[in-house]
Automatic annotation (TrEMBL), chain A:
Signal peptide: none annotated. Part of the ABC transporter complex MalEFGK involved in maltose/maltodextrin import. Probably responsible for the translocation of the substrate across the membrane. Pfam families: BPD_transp_1. Keywords: Cell membrane, Membrane, Sugar transport, Transmembrane, Transmembrane helix, Transport. The chain crosses the membrane at residues 12-33, 76-100, 112-136, 148-168, 189-211, 247-268. The lineage of its organism: Bacteria, Pseudomonadati, Pseudomonadota, Alphaproteobacteria, Rhodobacterales. InterPro entries: BP-dep_ABC_trans_perm, MetI-like, MetI-like_sf. Belongs to the binding-protein-dependent transport system permease family. MalFG subfamily. This is Maltose/maltodextrin transport system permease protein MalG. GO terms for biological process: transmembrane transport. Its main location: membrane.
UniProtKB/TrEMBL annotation, chain B:
This is ABC transporter permease subunit. The lineage of its organism: Bacteria, Pseudomonadati, Pseudomonadota, Alphaproteobacteria, Rhodobacterales. Signal peptide: none annotated. It is found in: Cell membrane. It comes from Halovulum marinum. Its main location: membrane.
Length: 283, 311
């Protein structure tokens, strides 16, 4: 078989890939290029395709607590880190036992439960927004991080459970049975055998929760209005309304905001992709 | 007592089975508890509110029952038709292009070559970054005075004068779809890539030996194997697009003159802009009913999947 033969489909494929790459990457490059321009240099027509006098002034301003903008931005950054981390830890703690049960046990209602879990994906965020807003107001949680953590936790759960179940399905039940025969309790078998084996799944799920919480906008927009409490996506919008013409600053902020999630994602790409596609392709 | 993987049907009734398995429920209880509070209750409450006129103060004790008035208001409003049409255009085209680009990328990336992992990683970045950041990046690219896209198109001689996309009634929705596709074609790509792993090599080779060309191999061998993944991917994309809020909201706020307003931005505007929770709830219920119809097919596609992997 001549795998190396170049057919016109190959040529067509490569051309397609080049175009796709341009489409996918140029906007990101343009964000980066703009962020190294001065505010004055950015507002030129026609725009310079690379910064003639590259400057890091925007990054310095955003990341130094010496000035108002930096203090505000670091505050948003810290809020985002806090909300995302707490959401991730709680989410994994709740999803692990549930996913294990869905994968292993055959209790009545298991299927119905599982699809009610998946069903949540079908509902538009706004259906929840108004009742949750009223509920948060009633519980005095408006303007607190808890309101976001509770919401993100719940909305992340269905997919987390679905991802983790896929991993548990792949771990042979015989391993646990052997451990049970050797005298482990069911919980010990779960804790000592299944947990370590599903570590990649747990990591992937955790990353997924973190990225979702980090990028979430609608609930943060609605539940928070205290300037000190905002997370990055809403903070970015606040920045835009305040400094409307400072595009380099906005691009620098967008870049800083993207770095953690892109880095996490690229390092753990393999697990993540596997987790995301696990359920869908098993045939 | 409960045992893992019992295959024989229990001789006891439902209640008996539930009692048998009572400890199993303990594992799902935390998840269920949170979801009852944050998912089940709000769904019920949205239905309930859709029959009331709510005061702008949101003091819910002062709401007034008004039957189906809110539904009549929504369906009879001047903008409803246009917003619905925008929603259809937005959802269908976004899904279509994300799927086509994702499928193409997956097919090309499915063969081994140097730097494949790097390419896949690069193509996935738009999918992971925040939609808010993405919206601002594209707003800057589209900028009518200083945008790079306008400058490039002008240099190429494709336009004369300024490029006006986001303030142009005819161009705004297609421009937003370009951003949305940019953000979500990678998702289709990885789903389909994973699906391609399940296509047996022997079958492709056999077809090759039999003299089937690349297109025939794709059409008769690869595509039938991808069917399940494609169905799920389309449904997930469709639902995601129907619910998408951030890109239109940040980039245009639904404007100009409602040309990029879709159901979801409209509902948000009614609820938190005009503080009309009753009307917005009725609107949500309509959207919800559409979702239920789609959800029916979604669950059906997924259960089909589940049956195939039956023990």
């Amino acid at each position: 078989m001549d795998k190396r033969r170049i057919t016109r489909w190959h040529v067509f494929g490569w051309i397609f890939l080049v175009f796709l790459l341009i489409y996918a990457v140029t906007p990101l490059l343009w964000m980066l290029i703009t962020s190294f321009k001065s505010q004055f240099a950015a507002l030129q027509y026609p725009p310079d395709l690379y910064p003639k006098n590259p400057t890091t002034e925007q990054y310095v301003r955003l990341l130094s607590p010496q000035n108002d903008v930096g203090r505000q931005f670091l505050r948003y950054l810290l809020n985002s880190i806090m909300v995302s981390t707490v959401t991730t830890i709680l989410g994994v703690a709740v999803a692990v036992p549930a996913a294990y049960a869905f994968s292993r046990f055959r209790f009545p209602g298991r299927k119905a439960l599982f699809f009610s879990v998946l069903f949540r994906n079908m509902f538009p965020a706004v259906v929840f927004l108004m009742p949750l807003f009223i509920m948060m107001r009633w519980m005095g949680l408006v303007n607190t991080y808890s309101s976001l953590v509770i919401t993100y936790l719940t909305f992340g759960l269905p997919l987390s459970i679905w991802l983790l179940k896929g991993f548990y399905d792949n771990i042979p039940v015989q391993l646990e049975q052997a451990a049970r025969i050797d005298g482990c309790t069911r919980f010990q078998a779960f804790y000592l055998i299944v947990m370590p084996l599903s570590a990649p799944g747990i990591i992937a799920t955790a990353i997924y929760s973190f990225i979702t919480a980090w990028n979430e906008y609608v609930y943060a927009l609605t539940f928070l209005n205290d300037d000190q409490k905002l997370t990055l996506p809403v903070g970015l919008q606040r920045f835009f309304t305040e400094y409307a013409t400072n595009w380099p600053g906005l691009m620098a902020a967008s870049f800083i905001m993207s770095v953690p999630v892109v880095a996490m994602f690229l390092i753990l790409q393999k697990y993540f992709v596997r987790a995301l596609t696990e359920g869908a392709v098993k045939a | 007592m409960s045992r893992p993987h019992r295959s024989e049907p229990s001789s006891r009734g439902l209640i008996g089975q539930i009692i048998d398995h009572r400890w199993d429920y303990l594992y799902v209880l935390p998840a269920l508890g949170v979801m009852m509070l944050v998912i089940a209750y709000p769904i019920y409450y949205t239905f309930y509110l859709s029959f009331f006129r709510t005061p702008p103060s949101l003091a819910m004790s002062e709401k007034i029952f008004n039957g189906f008035d809110n539904y009549a208001t929504v369906l009879g409003s001047d903008s409803f038709q246009q917003v619905t049409w925008n929603t259809i255009v937005w959802t269908v085209w976004s899904t279509f292009f994300a799927l086509i680009l994702g499928l193409g990328a997956a097919l090309v990336l499915n063969r081994e070559f140097m730097g494949r992992g790097l390419l896949r990683g690069l193509l996935l970045i738009p999918f992971v970054i925040s939609a808010v950041a993405a919206s601002y990046i594209w707003r800057w690219i589209y900028h009518s005075d200083f945008g790079v896209l306008g400058a490039v198109l002008f240099d190429l001689g494709l336009i004369d004068g300024k490029l006006n996309l986001l303030d142009n009634i005819d161009m705004v929705l297609p421009s937003l779809i370009v951003v949305n596709v940019w953000k979500e074609f990678p998702f289709a790509m990885i789903m389909i890539l994973a699906g391609l792993q399940t296509v047996p090599d022997q079958l492709l080779n056999a077809a090759r030996v039999d003299g089937a060309g690349a297109f025939h191999r794709f059409w008769h061998v690869t595509l039938p194997h991808l069917k399940g993944v494609l169905i799920i991917t389309v449904l997930l994309l469709f639902v995601q697009n129907l619910n998408h809020f951030i890109i239109p909201w940040i980039m245009t706020g639904g404007g100009p003159a409602g040309a990029s307003d879709i159901w979801i931005t409209q509902i948000y505007q009614i609820a938190f802009g005009r503080i009309r929770f009753g009307i917005a709830s009725a609107y949500s219920v309509i959207l919800f009913l559409v979702m239920v119809v789609i959800g029916y097919f979604y669950v059906k596609a997924l259960t089909g999947d589940e049956d195939r992997q039956a023990h």
